[in-house]
């Protein structure tokens, strides 16, 4: 499992630029917002957590279609299906490797973009924390879409269409927790705990559904 994690981590970084492409796309999405909103610093500060979350969500969708594509292309997907290691565990490790290579850099870059949106320290910390907790759920959901579209030559758009509606609850509670931390620290805990619950839920359901989809695709 360690060898699989390191292998997928290298492939995720090399394929299409990996973390660098995601961070640049994240920066681009957040950077264009002030030009559309205008020079209202108070408005930028108020909508900052939502904009950072939306940018991170869209950037996290990049490369999801390649989660199982390398194994499909070189034929190792058949070996994954026949090995003694449970396929669910293999998918879980691949999801962690993909999250480490693509979403974790977004979490690290979010404080810098928070400053760009004129967010205060509490908002920046809360947004980064909610991204750290909630972004793995996006990867687990994306694994299902990637498994469904793995046999398609250009399944990137299909993966985004399948995954985006399912990530809306993660976005809602992530933004709600970030706003709650700024307005009143007391209400921060309920949406934050729900966000953790969503991540744990999809950590169980996502790899299992992806493994089932991979087996059906092979059949």
UniProtKB/TrEMBL annotation:
Q: Establish whether keyword Membrane is in the entry.
A: yes
Q: Which GO terms describe its biological process?
A: cytochrome c biosynthetic process; cytochrome complex assembly
Q: How does it sit in the membrane?
A: Multi-pass membrane protein
What are the record's GO terms for cellular component?
plasma membrane
Keyword annotations from UniProtKB, A to Z: Cell inner membrane, Cell membrane, Cytochrome c-type biogenesis, Membrane, Transmembrane, Transmembrane helix, Transport
Cell location: Cell inner membrane
InterPro entries under this entry? Answer: Cyt_c_biogenesis_CcmB (IPR003544), Cyt_c_CcmB_bac (IPR026031)
Transmembrane domains' residue ranges = 12-37, 43-64, 85-108, 128-150, 157-182, 188-214
Q: Which domain of life is it from?
A: Bacteria
Molecular function GO labels = heme transmembrane transporter activity
Tell me the protein family, please.
Answer: Belongs to the CcmB/CycW/HelB family.
Q: What does this protein do?
A: Required for the export of heme to the periplasm for the biogenesis of c-type cytochromes.
Protein name (record):
Heme exporter protein B
């Amino acid at each position: 499992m360690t060898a699989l994690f390191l292998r997928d981590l290298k492939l995720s970084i090399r394929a299409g630029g990996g973390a660098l492409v995601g961070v640049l796309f994240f920066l681009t999405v957040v950077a264009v917002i002030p030009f559309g909103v205008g020079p209202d610093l108070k408005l930028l500060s108020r909508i900052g957590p939502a904009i950072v979350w939306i940018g991170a969500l869209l950037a996290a969708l990049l490369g999801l279609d390649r989660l199982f594509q390398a194994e499909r292309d070189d034929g190792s997907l058949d070996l994954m299906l026949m090995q003694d290691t449970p396929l669910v565990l293999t998918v879980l490790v691949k999801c962690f490797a993909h999250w480490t290579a693509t979403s974790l850099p977004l979490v690290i870059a979010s404080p810098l973009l928070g400053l760009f949106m004129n967010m205060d320290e509490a908002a920046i910390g809360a947004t980064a924390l909610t991204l750290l907790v909630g972004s793995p759920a996006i990867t687990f959901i994306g694994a299902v879409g990637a498994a469904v579209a793995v046999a398609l030559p250009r399944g990137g758009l299909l993966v985004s269409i399948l995954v985006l509606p399912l990530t809306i609850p993660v976005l809602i509670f992530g933004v709600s927790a970030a706003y709650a931390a700024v307005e009143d620290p007391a209400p921060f805990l309920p949406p934050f705990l729900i966000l953790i619950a969503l991540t744990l839920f999809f950590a169980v359901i996502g790899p299992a559904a992806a493994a089932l989809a991979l087996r059906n695709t092979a059949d």
